[in-house]
Design goal:
The complex is a heterodimer of chains A (215) and B (148).
Chain A (H helix, E strand, L loop, with lengths): L9 E2 L6 E2 L1 H4 L5 E2 L6 E6 L33 E2 L6 E2 L5 E3 L2 E3 L1 H10 L8 E3 L1 H15 L4 H16 L13 H44 L1
Antiparallel strand pairs in A: 1-2, 3-4, 5-6, 7-8
Helix pairs in contact in A: 3-4, 3-5, 4-5
Chain B lengths: L6 E2 L8 E5 L3 E6 L4 E8 L5 E6 L2 H22 L3 H23 L3 E6 L4 E3 L6 H22 L1
Antiparallel strand pairs in B: 1-2, 2-3, 3-4, 5-6, 6-7
């Protein structure tokens, strides 16, 4: 297998100056030659491992077999879905399968949840935001009269939406959003009951009060 | 309920990002508010982790200490209402100064692969960065010796 020459290179995180590999290899702090700051480096074998590139990237499946997407690259493995020959660049391993970029894209669309997304919207956190923020900014105003039921509806609609990969913005956020929205609605119901009570008592005792004070 | 396969590594960035340890990769989570972005670094691809100490903590200590003195010294020489006005911010800045010194030196950490060098914002204190490095070192070495 042919390989590219080793181009091991380390740079200082602050000044971007090149760090000496021999100093980095001893696993002890040393001074950066450019900025004189103390640097601790942990190099791994991948740093000095030769990189397979281009047409010589690994053994070929058949004599002269090339990648479907890169005719100048030798084939490494067939796609487990469409069977096209793939080079090391196009081989995308997913759950033990080897897929080409097109099949992976199709698979992503078919799956309800991409197992390795690069971005995720946090539905639970959005419901919690909708539930809490108006109540804090505009407490007991008509906007919460609308946002609290909306937060309940959205929490229930988004119940099965996937949380963040590390669990953030998941069910806990949705439950908190539900609890806080229900409390807001209960507060509104209490206010309405008290207002109706006051109005009724006014209607009932109003004439009597007028008689006492105005006659 | 532990539905996700990740373990949190030491260090955080005020909710703006953290590094998580997965089965075969490190996951850098970055995001504010309602969405998150994910960067994966597979153990087999990681070439180096580099930590460089910075002077941010000294600057921070000077600023916070000065603010604590600015409120604290006048508070010692006045009485009544003004003492009560100046004492709480002095105490707060003093507490922040102590907290900053207790957290230790600051640093900048980068993670290098063959195609990119990515800054890890969550590892901005040397103590935490070294602890995180120690935790992932064995896994990375195991992954790279098995694929070599």
């Amino acid at each position: 297998m042919a390989a590219s020459p080793i181009e091991a290179k380390l740079s200082c995180p602050v000044c971007r100056g090149e760090l000496p590999l021999d100093l980095a290899a001893i696993h002890q702090p040393f001074d950066c030659p450019s900025c004189r700051r103390t640097v601790t480096c942990l190099p791994f074998p991948a740093l000095t491992r030769p990189r397979a590139v281009g047409a010589a990237a690994g053994p070929q499946i058949e004599n002269g077999a090339t990648c479907f997407y890169h005719p100048d690259h030798s084939a490494q493995i067939p796609c487990d879905h469409c069977g096209r020959f793939l080079c090391a660049l196009c081989d995308l391993p997913l759950n033990g399968r080897h897929l080409c970029p097109v099949c992976l894209d199709n698979t992503d669309r078919q799956l309800t949840e991409n197992p390795r997304p690069s971005h995720r919207f946090l539905w639970g956190r959005a419901a919690l935001f909708l539930s809490i923020t108006p109540a804090i900014i505009y407490p007991m105003t008509l906007i919460t009269f609308l946002t609290a039921p909306l937060a309940i509806i959205l929490s229930l609609l988004w119940w099965k939406k996937p949380p963040g990969l590390t669990g953030s913005g998941g069910r806990l956020s949705l439950v908190l959003a539900l609890i806080f929205s229900i409390l807001q609605i209960l507060a509104w119901i209490t206010v309405v009951i008290v207002l109706v009570g006051i109005l009724q008592s006014k209607a009932q005792f109003g004439p009597a009060i007028q008689e006492v004070f105005f006659l | 309920m532990n539905a996700h396969p990740y373990k949190r590594l030491p260090g955080h960035c005020w909710g703006f990002g953290a590094l998580w340890e997965g089965e075969d990769h490190l996951l850098l989570v970055q995001g504010v508010g309602l969405s998150e972005n994910y960067h994966r670094f597979y153990f087999r691809d990681i070439q180096a982790i580099t930590i460089c100490t910075t002077r941010t903590w000294i600057v921070l200590a000077i600023l916070l200490g000065s603010a604590a003195m600015m409120f604290g010294i006048p508070a010692l020489f006045v009485n009544g209402f003004f003492r009560w006005l100046l004492a709480p911010p002095a105490a707060l800045f003093l507490l922040l100064t102590v907290w900053n010194l207790w957290k230790g030196p600051t640093c900048r950490t980068t993670l290098q692969t063959a195609v990119q060098t990515k800054r890890i914002p969550s590892l901005h204190r040397t103590k935490k960065a070294l602890a995180a490095m120690a935790r992932v070192r064995k896994k990375i070495l195991a992954a790279q010796t098995s694929t070599a």
